[in-house]
Amino acid sequence: MIQTRKRFRTLKLASAFLMVLFLVACSSQPKGPEVTERLVTHISEDGSKRFQYVMTMQRKKGAGRGGFKGGGKGMGGKGMANRGGQSGGKNRTDMIAQMQEKMKARGIEAMEAKLDETEFCRDGYMVLSEQFTMARLKINGECKESATEDDKKNFPNVSKHFEHSSSAYSMPSSLPDSP
Predict the structure, then answer these.
(1) What ranges does the record list as Basic and acidic residues composition bias (predicted)?
(2) N or C: which end of the chain has fewer CB atoms below 10 A?
(3) Three-state SS for 112?
């Protein structure tokens, strides 16, 4: 009976210590990545309106990967490390894929908000191409409506990198393909 009380007290102290350790670790986590976005527009002579939206996420200087340093050693197989079979490689791959899909969806939402804010594509858009990595989203698109005279005034072609021909639409070469 006395040993049971000692074990219970030791377990309570260990739990309290781990909770404090967890709270300290969470409070010292680095801030999230710095997000930059760019919308480049181009209006062709025939009135078609094209755009390139790029969202890049970069870690701030000095920011680590997060989590505990050193990774810890677990609880000797007696803890909850394998709770529900969550430690397998397939589950991790699925989790990463889900995270990528969520990030892509947020990037598309941000692009649509930028298009709404600028009123560049008032009647919607078509995606011509897209590239997505964990750190970068790049979407090339074309508005469904043709440019008005106001559009031509509000969105002057400042980038010489957009070239239009009957068969190709080349993107700015100044944008790197990797983060």
Answers:
(1) 146-164
(2) N
(3) helix
Which residue, chain included where needed, has tokens 């298009």? 115
pLDDT score for 90: 78
Tell me how far apart the alpha carbons of residues 140 and 131 are, in angstroms, rounded to a whole number.
9
Residue 161 in contact with residue 173, Cβ under 8 Å? yes
Residues in the chain: 179
State how far the alpha carbon of 143 is from the alpha carbons of 90, 113, 122, 170, 172, in Å.
40, 14, 8, 17, 18
Backbone phi, then psi, for 163, in 5-degree steps?
Answer: -125, 135
Q: Is the pLDDT of residue 11 over 80?
A: no
Residue pair 51/39 in contact (Cβ under 8 Å)? The answer is yes
Q: What is the token pair recorded at 75?
A: 């609880």
Domain ranges of the chain: 1-30, 31-60+90-179
Q: Which residues contact 143 (CB under 8 A, 6 or more apart)?
A: 48, 49, 50, 51, 120, 121, 122, 123, 124, 125
Q: pLDDT digit string (tens) for 108-122?
A: 999 999 999 999 999
